[in-house]
Fold:
Amino acid sequence: MNFKFHLLVFIPIFLLGFPELKAQTQALDTISPWEMLAYDGASAFGGLKHAYSRPFHWKKDDFITAGAILLGTGALYAFDEDSSDWFRRQEEDVPGVLKETGYYLGKPLYNYSINGGVYLIGLFTKNEKFRKTGVLLISSATAVGLIQTVSKTFVGRARPIASEGKDSFNPFSNEAHYHSFPSGHTILAFTTFYAIGKQFKNPWAKGGLYALGLLSPVTRLWSGAHWLTDVALSVAVSVVVVDSIDKYLNKERYPGVMSKDKISWRLQVGPGTIGLRGSF
Structure:
């Protein structure tokens, strides 16, 4: 319990130390917290609707990105069993604190507590940057959470620990052993830390936060709870959803101001390498 409590408290408080999140505080003394809460709630709902409606407005580049993600996932599928065996062999050598941290960062209760903590800091300190980040976190987590909940039941893929192989599927099963694709822990944890990382210009801060977001996916591979393709597609979905909602919020909350934090994603194929490469 102490570990979980410190995890929930440490991350929002830790972010207070970063000047990039402390900046952009607006003069909001005349606006009540209830008015800000109502506005932010509508903003979060708007971001949720925007994320789900974007596929109907995709252009050529968007379809290319979607195709690259599917192609990359398909290529990784061939290595699912070998990679799972390798990751599971590493588990006994992994420090317990890493496994425990990765596990709890992807649990909905603790994940939403972190997201809500960031937002509440912004609400009660009237810090616009924290408020916007909190709205992005909550809206994105809700969007990807619904996607993974529906998808894993619809697909019904067996987990590695079920010992049925990567090609075993039982759609609409209520058994947890058939809820492997996509990874709920991965999609929630990486969404949170990718969204927070987007608020920083410093590449070291970004890289550290992104690495923390990848801890949960790796712990799921160590434990045999998911295949490599489960976590890879989950990370890709997180990136797409967060980027989409972030652009919407920037346009909705700061008309005329374009976000400078853009990542260009490209499919990279080479000797012994296949994946998505992000440049920022």
Observations:
- The beta strands are 264-270, 273-279.
- Residues 44 and 139 are 5 Å apart (CA to CA).
